[in-house]
Amino acid sequence: MAADKPSYYITTPIYYVNAKPHLGTAYCTVMTDVQARFRRACGYDVKFLTGMDEHGEKVAEAAEKNGFDTPQAWCDSMEPAFADLWRALEISNDDFIRTTQPRHIAGVQKFLKVLLDRGYIYKGAYDGWYCRPDETYFTDTQVHHHEEERLAAGEAPADPAHPLCPDCDRPLERIQEESWFFKLSAFQQPLLDFYAAHPDFIQPETRKNEVISFVSGGLKDLSISRSTFDWGVPFPFDEDHVAYVWVDALINYLTALGYGSDDEAEFRRRWPAQAHIVGKDIIRFHCVIWPALLMAADLPLPEKVFAHGFLTVRNEETGKVEKMSKSRGNVIAPEEVMDLLGVGAYRYYFMSDVVHGTDAPISWGRMRQVYNADLANSWGNLVSRALNMSIKYFDGCAPARPGTWDEATPLKDAADGVYGRYAAHMETFDYQGAAADIMQIVSAANLYIENSAPWALAKDPDKAGELELVLWNVLEAIRIANELYAPFMPAISAEVRRRLGLPAEQDAALEELCQWGGLAGGQPVEKGDPLFPRLQD
Ligand code: ME8
Fold this sequence. Notes:
The protein is α/β, with parallel strands linked by helices. It has 21 helices and 16 strands.
């Protein structure tokens, strides 16, 4: 723990264990990782949490279907699928929570008791619609409204016994059972007041409007327990009931900090979270139910929920563009993309080319295009040319920092203020903007090499000083661009640092590392294999 550094607590959703992670799951996790790495580089004391959502009827059913004796054994068998992929994708999570861990169960039970004591839950009977694949409840009005929209769009009427889910269009079930309810209806005005007082709480803006209009339409109390199966956290004061999987899951953000344990010091230090990163599919849970639950428990609310869009694929049969999802069976395995691009380029592609907030169709052609243009031709080529020339003209070393290092050059100009521009983009999750900031330096450096033709300078002994200045400028620009790329491509950046002969660990904060003039020079450098071998179209 670094007491002197400000805490930055960032989370991904905890993913369902019923299938292996796919490109969409990985997209959210990489996006969160880039922010966590950026914040660490800026000097924050980061806690980056991800994990697995293991309770609920679907998990119990999947365990049985897959021939496991217990749901727990099924969940345990799935952990490596997540843990191994996160390692392969260079995910730097500091913790991995599983909702079946005792630390989590204790925290959920404490939370439920707090809600009971504060008078925000009561026992009643639930009679309504339930989407089993999404584990989401819908009212008659919501379902009716969706059916009207479908009919208006010319679609065939749904079976009245199983109308279709307003979120995912799969058949709903009618559920009637005794249940505990959360007084969500009491939080309509407090939520609207909160959104108004915290305009940055929901990002991007379009999502905020969607949430506000949903809440303005009125909130109904929420069924938060199930009694027809037992794979969940038992209510401590009513053992026949287990917590509704979403309430169980949301509380992970607290229990990972020790909420409900004997030592709540980390919880007190780090809560509220700085950012929950989620997909737009689960925004109501994070921007309506979660804040209401926290208000009911008298706890502070997270600073920001960032909702990204979906990676989509075209359904060959219907021609419709669909969300890539496990239950639709249209997923691409991250390993396929890693095999094509390598991990660094995989991360770079999804983070720099897919605008965070809108949906993005996945295309192998576009991946190749971005890889070849940005990485093979621009960044990789720049690094390899610069190192080659150093080795050739400076006896295997970087040129020493010349006395005139502080004089204006096109590269010093390009690097001037880059940290501020980049940080502003990173902080608002505009990674595309941040990648463009770095690319400006990279392009300027490639152009500068062309314009100053070091190979010609090297032939003229009178131009030795100029050659030194030019090449030092290029290496200095590379050093800075490489630090800025590090959250996107951690292992590649570490390798570039190594080839440049720089220390693996940097003590200084990113802003300082981006100051022009940091490269002393004179150290041996290494060419190495191409970082991004060109891909054939
Ligand atoms: O919802 N494109 O888990 P989940 C982009 N357990 N992102 C996608 C995606 C796609 N096609 N498909 C999934 C759950 N995601 C709950 C969460 S949190 C307290 C409980 C990402 O396994 C996206 O971030 O269905 C989405 O929100 C998340 O995976 C849902 O993962």
